[in-house]
Amino acid sequence: MEIKEIFRHIENWAPRGIAWEKDNTGLQVGSREIKVRNVLICLDLTREIVHEAIAKKCNLIISHHPLIFAPIKKIQTSTDPTSQLIELLLKNNITLYSAHTNLDFTKNGVSFELAKKLKLKNVKFLSAISKAQFKLVVFVPGKNVSEVSEAIFSAGGGVIGEYSHCSFRSEGKGTFLGSDLSNPAIGRKGNIEEAPEVRLEVIADKWNLGEVIERMKSAHPYEEPAYDIYPLENKNINFGFGAIGEFDKPVEKDLFLNEVCRILKTPSVKHSEAKTSLIKRVAVCGGSGSELLPEAVRAGADAFITADIKYHTYFDAFENILMIDAGHFETEVVVLEKLKNYLEVFINSGKKTADILISQYLRNPVKVFNYRQRRK
User: Fold this and answer.
1) Which tens digits make up the pLDDT trace of 38-71?
2) CATH code of residue 77
3) What is the model's pTM?
4) Do 137 and 199 contact (CB within 8 A), yes or no?
5) In the chain, what are the helix, strand and coil shares in percent, each to the nearest 5?
6) What count of other Cβ atoms lies within 10 Å of the Cβ of residue 310?
7) Dihedral sign for Cα atoms in the order 6, 124, 66, 366
8) Residue 62 resides in a domain
């Protein structure tokens, strides 16, 4: 299996088109054309993780955070740590790929896994994305509808929530007059023709739209298919920001905070004043998600867990919601096991061909010092 097939599989789950526009997801360093040996998964790339990949014969590393985020003006291996990592990767024929905000914004991605780790039920997006879908309407001879629709579905069109192959079809009559240069599939050029047709309507995500149209045209019998594209205001329930769920029964605030620390393996968390002493409905956003505070309040959450919260944001949360900073590393590392399982099912279906490993050198760069009174 070539590495590019793994890229394609990840992007079927977490399309690069949903990533933050200023993000740098996808191939970072190396080749997509080589065969995969073993795969190493990490949150951030470090020198010790590259050496771990070399020792474990991994020629693909998948990181959550991109190594290359801003454009690089020069490669300077004598002093620049990023340049040194790039050199080390290239010298050892290791490809580096990043699944960052696209993995944050997809269903069962970072925030969903954080919610599930906390044992929340009925999990859904805190804020689904909008203005990211189009409706494709194409007019097809009745006998060719199955062929054309399957071509559209194969490119990712027709997905609504947990349902695929979604379409609407209505019968009508099409008319056309071909010029002397035309080559009509039905009737003759120079004649006004009438043909029974089906109006086929399908939703497509904006990042799939180009491919959906190309496959539709390839499968369509007409020389010049008639089709329309309509932008939609719909909320896309498969992609969005943060997540929200609930416990079966309310949990006392201090017990809840203690469980957050235990589950996320952190000795402490920062938090605001609580509106209520009982916590039932909880919003989460892995990594830096404090801008979703208004959404969490509107959604009726009793608590909101995220990271990198600024000082004044705690005042915004004051007596509205229990806002918790549980750490950037702690709220994102939970997705790595999900990514590992997702790739194992794909790569090793039927026959084991590669090991998928989570790095043993996952390190939180933020350290906490707890005050200890010295004995006299």
Assistant:
1) 999 999 999 999 999 999 999 999 999 999 998 8
2) 3.40.1390.30
3) 0.89
4) yes
5) 30, 30, 40
6) 11
7) negative
8) yes
